[in-house]
Here is the input.
Amino acid sequence: MKSKKPSMLIWDDDGPDVKRISMEPCDWFSARGMKRIYGRSDVLTSQTFNMDIWRHKSGRIFARF
Here is the structure.
């Protein structure tokens, strides 16, 4: 039995279709004064995927990949 090589699935999604939720790309943001609510780092073969999610006092959510 042959072993499968690791592969990565790439997709493009416009996000949820809910009026009160919208996704807006931004070049950068400062997390100063925000609360970090989630963070994770995955090692995929020789690549590392990092994700941090922050909440602003206004309730807006920011994600950094």
Notes: The chain has a mean pLDDT of 80. The CA atoms of residues 17 and 23 lie 10 Å apart. Residues 35-64 form one domain.
